[in-house]
Amino acid sequence: MEMITLAMAKGRIANEAISLLENAGILFSDFEDKSRKLIFLDDNRSIKLIFVKAVDVPTYVELGAADIGVIGKDIMLEDPKDVYELMDLGIGKCKLSVAGFPDKNLIDRSQLTVASKYPNLAKEYFNQKGIRTKMIKLNGSVELAPLISLADCIVDIVETGATLKENGLVVLETITAVSARLIVNKASFAMKTECIQNFISDVKRGLEVYS
Ligand code: PRP
Prior knowledge:
Blueprint: E1 4-8, H1 12-23, E2 39-41, E3 47-51, H2 57-62, E4 68-72, H3 73-78, E5 84-88, E6 94-100, E7 111-116, H4 119-128, E8 132-137, H5 144-147, E9 153-158, H6 162-166, E10 170-178, E11 180-184, H7 186-191, H8 193-210
Parallel strand pairs: 1-3, 1-4, 7-8, 7-9
Antiparallel strand pairs: 2-3, 4-11, 5-11, 6-9, 6-10
Helix pairs in contact: 1-8
Bound molecules: 1-O-pyrophosphono-5-O-phosphono-alpha-D-ribofuranose.
């Protein structure tokens, strides 16, 4: 049988996605969250699960190194790729938000310095509001930026809100809700249609049990 390569990032979304697949009867018995191993086969040896950095998932899928990917909508919005986005998995739910110190007037200023992992999204959001921005691209620990006066505010995903709270920051505005999506390489969808359709049917069944 043809094998499908599935790319995702270790962490919150992967743990939820693997539970979802288990509910669909796709088992990765040797998967361990803490393992440093990067490739796992499902028990039926029909799916090869590869772990890559979250921002790289769409690249692997676009280039055909993976047939399918599970990735947050935030990453697809920031850097769109030429792939099919087939399904909202309804997992990894969070909100892309503007956050900063609890200063209600902050985001009414005409110019802001904004730190974010999502500079394109952030710039577009403030442009639409007529606010000029100096964007600072960071790759993590974004909440630090306002605390050390590197930026006036941040644009980042908020899930539980714990990171903001523990750093004395609050959500100032919500830009959009995001969740994990199933993306598919265009050529794979044409060449491995049956396999991929079967996988999608399994995932849909898993979703019904999961929710
Ligand atoms: C993400 C995000 C926030 C945090 C939000 O960071 O960038 O920092 O999670 O989650 P919370 O609302 O549940 O606290 P991640 O854990 O990916 O780490 P990073 O800052 O190193 O990117």
